[in-house]
UniProtKB/TrEMBL annotation:
Pathway stated in the Swiss-Prot or TrEMBL entry: Purine metabolism; GMP biosynthesis; GMP from XMP (L-Gln route): step 1/1
Positions of the catalytic residues: 78 (nucleophile), 168, 170
Species of origin: Nitratireductor pacificus pht-3B
Keyword ATP-binding: yes
Pfam families: GATase, GMP_synt_C, NAD_synthase
Residues spanning the signal sequence: none
Protein name in the entry: GMP synthase [glutamine-hydrolyzing]
Coiled-coil intervals, chain numbering: none
UniProtKB keywords: ATP-binding, Glutamine amidotransferase, GMP biosynthesis, Ligase, Nucleotide-binding, Purine biosynthesis
Length: 512
């Protein structure tokens, strides 16, 4: 295991991704609890992350002393390099030469970090983002790389296996960065790159068996990749002690509930109960147009329905949840204070307290990409693995204003055509999320010889890494024209199609 000490950089998670891609397991701990994490994990190497803080400020964060007392290899990145220097007897100063963005690193000397990647005398693109810089090295260190703005851009103390880089090897703008990180964890720290999803699968299954024993387990299946993989893993571990419940709230996409059920029943023979609660959900939503009330109504009903079904089964001791590592990592905040709620998200969060169940969270240590790899490992069809995200409240939040069965049917038909065209054009995987929205507005049109007065459909498509920010997708107009024509011709109730060119921020991805 490698311990990554987080000082609050925006890209700390990328360090973890790169380390894991090299086949070495790692965990992130905020600097405040890094000492506790160090004792618990007993890591074989440490990486210190970047930070928005400044080492020259009084009270700025430091790495716990145990790290430097342990004799383990340490790699400091950006702020991590600076605090390492400050803590080991070197000097860091604020400077006027801020460096942001692309820079070039001149390799002054060979070192184990650069082995097989960069040779002495060559020059390479790296990504910088710093104001302060190291101005005097601690004893034992030497310079191995320089840049215009950072005379100490790469430093090494090979006797103690301490390395520091001012640039960010974890971002793609440092094209060779992943290989440097692999050098650090494999060659320098001597960790074998044998952490694979096949190995993880075995470990996770063992852990579930140990946790659950003979207990009864239930899982709320949505058809999304996270809950699907969590359910399959648990089923492999405890077989029919697990029952999955799929609550069809009538807000899913075309054929979705049936497809999910067919896949799980046929391929995995997994005990699965499909509950058609669409009347209840749609009934409760009718006449309600406030987005937050809609979201809360759906969340509340979901818990009610799920709880009733669980009671019919005689209750359960455990609830499986597809919680991922990014939800678990404690974030380091320098601003403090709670953030504003933009939307109340729908998940099964309220269930465990209410039903007194313990959680089984077999994906807690994984990033989304890793869950996909694990899904493939478990034989989940590619159509499930590569799916665009779909929100818990479903099509209700894509029908701004009041929701009716009729509107949902119109939206479902338009959405299916839109996605079909995206797949035919080979664009599905290039887009992060795409969907249709049915506006509560009717406009005048002409079809054949007649006047029409029907709804407007908006199309949305975005690219994103994590849904936190997003850009609207740049289609060519031919494509949009094709999709619009098909929707208007084939869907009764829509006579106009528009494309949403709002990015996030300032827009959100969903319309409500
Ligand atoms: P927004 O609209 O906030 O959405 O930009 C960001 C991502 O989150 C999805 N989303 C949800 N997912 N429950 C979910 O599981 C929800 O209540 C929910 N609301 C939005 C949205 O589809 C996008 O991928």
């Amino acid at each position: 295991t490698v311990l990554i000490v987080d000082f609050g950089s925006q890209v700390t998670q990328l360090i973890a991704r790169r380390v894991r891609e090299s086949g070495v397991y790692c965990e992130i701990a905020p600097f405040q609890s890094a000492e506790e994490a160090f004792r618990r994990l007993q890591p074989k190497a440490i990486i210190l992350s970047g930070s928005p803080a400044s080492t020259v400020d009084i009270g700025s964060p430091r790495a716990p002393d145990v790290i430097f007392e342990s004799g383990l290899p340490v790699l400091g990145i950006c702020y991590g390099e600076q605090t390492m220097c400050a803590q080991l007897g070197g000097k860091v100063e604020g400077s006027d030469h801020r460096e942001f963005g692309r820079a070039f690193l001149e390799i002054q000397d060979d070192c184990a970090l650069f082995d097989g990647v960069w040779a002495k005398g060559t020059r390479h693109q790296v990504w910088m983002s710093h104001g302060d810089r190291v101005t005097a090295l601690p004893p034992g260190f030497r310079i191995v790389g320089t840049s215009t703005g950072a005379p100490f851009a790469a430093i090494a103390d090979e006797a103690r296996k301490y390395y520091g880089v001012q640039f960010h090897p974890e971002v793609v703008h440092t094209p060779d960065g992943a290989r440097l990180l692999a050098n650090f964890v494999q060659n320098i720290a001597g960790l074998k790159g044998d952490w694979t999803m096949a190995a993880y699968r075995e470990q996770a299954i063992e852990a579930i068996r140990k946790q659950v024993g003979k207990g009864k387990v239930i899982c709320a299946l949505s058809g999304g990749v996270d809950s699907s993989v969590a359910a399959l893993l648990t089923h492999e571990a405890v077989g029919d002690q697990l029952t999955c419940i799929l609550v069809d709230h009538g807000l899913m996409r075309k054929n979705e509930a049936a497809d999910v059920v067919a896949m799980f029943r046929e391929h995995y023979n997994l005990p699965l109960i499909l509950v058609d609660a669409s009347d209840r959900f749609i009934g409760a939503l009718e006449g309600e147009s406030d987005p937050e009330t809609k979201r809360k109504t759906i969340g509340r009903l979901f818990i009610e329905v799920f709880e009733e079904e669980a009671k019919k089964l005689g209750g359960a001791d455990y609830l499986v949840q597809g919680t991922l590592y990014p939800d678990v990592i404690e974030s380091v905040s320098f601003t403090g204070g709670p953030s504003v709620t933009i939307k109340s998200h729908h998940n099964v969060g309220g269930l465990p307290e209410r039903m007194k169940m313990s959680l089984v969270e077999p994906l807690r240590e994984l990033f989304k990409d890793e869950v996909r790899v694990l899904g493939r490992e478990l034989g989940l069809p590619e159509s499930f693995i590569g799916r665009h995200p779909f929100p818990g409240p479903g099509l209700a939040i894509r029908c701004p204003g009041g929701v009716t069965r009729e509107k949902l049917d119109i939206l479902r038909a338009a959405d299916a055509i839109y996605l079909d065209e995206i797949r035919k054009a080979g664009l599905y995987d290039a887009i992060w999320q795409a969907f249709a929205v049915l506006l509560p507005v009717q406009t005048v049109g002409v079809m054949g010889d007649g006047r029409t007065y029907e709804f407007v459909c908006a199309l949305r498509a975005v690219t994103s890494v994590d849904g936190m920010t997003a850009d609207f997708y740049h289609y060519d107009m031919e494509f949009l024209g094709r999709a619009a024509t098909r929707i208007i011709n084939e869907v009764k109730g829509i006579n106009r199609v528009v494309y949403d060119v709002t990015s996030k921020p300032p827009g959100t991805i969903e319309w409500e």
